[in-house]
Structures are given as C-alpha cells and as structure tokens.
C-alpha cells in the first residue's frame, strides 16, 4: 500500500481529531492537508521511528493543532462577542453503533466545554476519551510522560464533568424540542417557546463583529425570549429549515437562499438549556444554500 492510500484510510479520523481540537472546519481541513504534504515528504526512517504510520499521522495532526490553539488564544481573546465552533454539517442518519458517541463528542455544547481546557489538556482528553488511545500512545503523541498525561486527563475530566448535564435528552426528544422551538419562533408563539426553554437558558450569538449579534451571552428565559423575537423581527424574510449539525438536530436560517444563521442546542431534563447561534459568515461557508438542499 502506497503512502497516499495509507493517508486516505486515516483521513476521516485525522479530520475528526483536528475539528474537535480547533472547532473550525476550514482550519481542520488545512491541518489535514498540511499533514498530507508533510507525510509525503517524510523519510522512511522518520515514519519507522514511531509505532505505526497511524501513530505518525496522529502525532503530526495533534501537535499542529496544539501549536495552532496556542497561537489562536490571543486572537480569540480579541474576538468580538462570544466565540463559537464552526457548525459541521453531518449525516442525518449516522451508523446507530456510532451515533451516541459521535453526538456527544461533536456537539456544540461539548466543543464549547473543550474551550475551558488548555491545548494540551484538550489533546489528551480527546485522544483518550473519544479516540481511545492508550496512555503510552498519548504520551508519545504529545511528548509527555504517561504520569503527566494521566494528570492532564484527570484535570480535564473534572472541568468537563462540572458542566455536563446530568440528564441529557435522547435524540428523539432533542429533535422534537428543536422542531417546536423553530415553529414557535417563526410563528411568534411566546407560550410555545416558553414551554421548551429551561428557566436558566442561555443564548450565545456569534457574529464575529461582521453581523449584528449580542456581544455577551444572554441569560434567563425572559431575556432570551425577547432576544430571539427581537432578532427575527430585525431580519425579515428568514426561512428556517431543520438540519443535522454536529451530529444533532439543529436549525439553519436562510436569507435569500443563503445560510444566515446556524442554530444548535444543548438539552437537559426535557428542556433547552443553551442555544448557540452562529451568524458569522466566515463560519457558514461550508453550509449549502437552500436551493441545493431543495434539489437534493
């Protein structure tokens, strides 16, 4: 098997690591492409110095992502308003054996939680908890001792578990709540909207300083409802459709057939507890126009 074939077999997993690390489709694709070029140029001795070609590729992607996150930290501190991950369009009918794990580790809520971790903590957590690498493999990938990796994972788990909901919604419940949310917002049905929102719901809007959006998260059901209806009233002509983003039921609002806002949700105890609305046009470029969705 030649190197191109080896890389092709690993590409989806490498993208999965990079996207979860960076929260950006475009950046993840750039990292994977750069890794491919470096893979083609690597000597046989360099590849043989690690356990396997897979380990070599994973090491290159992970270390590049760690470096990129460290350099991006300052840029994100200067970002206008909340920074949210770029929505990822995924298969609406994933393999049932993979659906549960994918939904959790790809969800916007999970990716937002990862922002609490340092780049190294994030790498160790993902490699162990999502991709099931051994501590010995992780130590080699990130260039730390196994003891250090166990300590990093313990810290990361504590930070993640502090914020994870105790009673997450099933996929069927998630889909029902999203559909009712979309209907209530589009029809101006305040009571219908109140029926699906938790009292302590939070609304995060990411405009990146390029479109109008709240510069801070909006907290509490009353403020969130006012914010949602106010947003819709300021952008007449929006058309909303259900979609599968980050492997969970979501909404895409279109204006003149083009994606205007992608909305994902975090559910707990039968209610929506967080709404993530991405309107930054730079983060919507990978989403198809409404016309192409009609054609499909």
What does this structure look like?
With 296 residues, the chain is α+β, with helices and mostly antiparallel strands. It has 13 helices and six strands. Strands 2-1-6-5-4-3 form a six-stranded mixed sheet, with helices on one face. The mean pLDDT is 90.
Q: What are the defining features of this structure?
A:
296 residues; alpha+beta; six-stranded mixed sheet
What's the topology here?
Blueprint: H1 3-22, H2 25-41, H3 44-48, H4 53-77, H5 96-106, H6 108-114, H7 119-130, H8 135-142, H9 146-163, H10 171-187, H11 190-194, E1 197-206, E2 218-219, H12 221-234, E3 239-245, E4 248-255, E5 258-268, E6 271-278, H13 290-295
Helix pairs in contact: 1-2, 1-4, 2-4, 4-8, 7-9, 8-9
Please outline what is shown here:
The chain is α+β, with helices and mostly antiparallel strands and 296 residues long. 56% of the residues lie in helices and 16% in strands. Strands 2-1-6-5-4-3 form a six-stranded mixed beta sheet, covered by helices on one side.
Strand composition percent: 15-25%
| Oligomeric status | single chain
Determine the number of helices (DSSP H or I, runs of at least 4 residues): 13
Largest sheet: 6 strands, mixed
Q: Mean of residue pLDDT?
A: 90
Distance linking N and C termini = 36 Å
Using DSSP, what is the number of strands?
Answer: 6
Give the C-alpha Rg. 20 Å
- Give the topology string: H per helix, E per strand: HHHHHHHHHHHEEHEEEEH
Overall morphology: globular
Portion of residues within helices: 55-70%
SS-based class: alpha+beta
């Amino acid at each position: 098997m030649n190197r191109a074939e080896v890389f092709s077999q690993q590409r989806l997993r490498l993208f999965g690591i990079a996207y979860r690390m960076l929260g950006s489709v475009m950046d993840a694709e750039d990292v994977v492409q750069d890794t491919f070029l470096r893979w083609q140029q690597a000597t046989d001795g360099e590849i043989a110095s690690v356990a396997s070609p897979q380990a070599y590729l994973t090491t290159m992607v992970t270390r590049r992502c760690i470096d990129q996150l460290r350099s991006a930290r300052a840029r994100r501190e200067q970002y206008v308003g909340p920074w949210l991950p770029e929505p990822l369009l995924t298969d609406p009918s994933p393999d049932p054996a993979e659906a549960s794990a994918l939904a959790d580790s790809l969800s916007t809520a999970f990716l937002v939680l990862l922002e609490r971790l340092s780049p190294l903590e994030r790498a160790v957590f993902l490699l162990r908890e999502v991709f099931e690498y051994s501590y010995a493999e992780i130590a080699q990938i990130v260039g730390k001792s196994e003891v250090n990796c166990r300590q990093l994972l313990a810290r990361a788990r504590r930070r993640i578990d502090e914020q994870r909901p105790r009673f997450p919604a099933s996929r069927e419940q998630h889909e029902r709540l999203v559909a009712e949310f979309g209907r209530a917002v589009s029809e101006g049905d305040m009571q219908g909207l109140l029926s699906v929102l938790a009292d302590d719901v939070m609304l995060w809007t990411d405009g990146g300083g390029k479109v109008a959006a709240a510069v801070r998260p909006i907290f509490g059901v009353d403020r969130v409802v006012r914010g949602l209806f106010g947003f819709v009233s300021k952008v007449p002509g929006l058309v909303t459709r259900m979609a599968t983003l980050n492997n969970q039921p979501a909404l895409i609002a279109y204006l003149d057939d083009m994606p205007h806002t992608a909305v994902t949700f975090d559910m707990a105890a039968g209610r929506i507890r967080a709404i993530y609305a991405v309107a930054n046009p730079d983060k919507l470029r990978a989403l198809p126009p409404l016309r192409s969705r009609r054609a499909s």
